[in-house]
Amino acid sequence: MAGGFTTSFAVRPQNHGKFMERVASNMRRNIKRALTECRSIALQDVQEQTANAPPASPNGDRGAVASGMVKKSWTVSVDEPTLSIVLKNPAMNTKGKSYTGYIEQDRKPGEGMPPPAAILLWLQQRYGKGDKRAAFLIARAIKRRGLYRRKIVQSTRENTADKIKKVLYTRFAELIRNSSGP
Prior knowledge:
Number of strands: 2
Distance between the termini: 39 Å
Order of helices and strands: HHEEHHHH
Structural class: mainly alpha
Number of helices: 6
Largest sheet: 2 strands, antiparallel
Strand content: 5-15%
């Protein structure tokens, strides 16, 4: 007997229409819940990555939290149609430039001096006092030496991806469990 035996049959739940409505309703609810969880995970991770970033110079401390402005300014949103996490950081220096750009990329030696006013603010926040001359000298040293890149966004993306996948898989498994029935 060439080809063997093949058969197929459909298995339809009772009240097929109500079942499909329940699946759709559960799907919307589970996706919303999953995206809210993912947003929280990403925000926590980007703040941790900011706090634990490698030093910007051989003389520096760990973390990109000189004044705390960058860490506090992160916002995370979710683009629902694409299931994408969107990280934004509006923190600007006194010249209207993005702090995050300097942290994420780098500041090349000779590229320009950061505003001494920003360094003065950092000194005041970090040490409880500020000295204009010290701020100027630090800014000039940064201009001469540059700053290393810290890859906060890249690290967040790498650390967060598996956590987000786990949340999505868990929520979709719940969807299937909660939608099954007669």
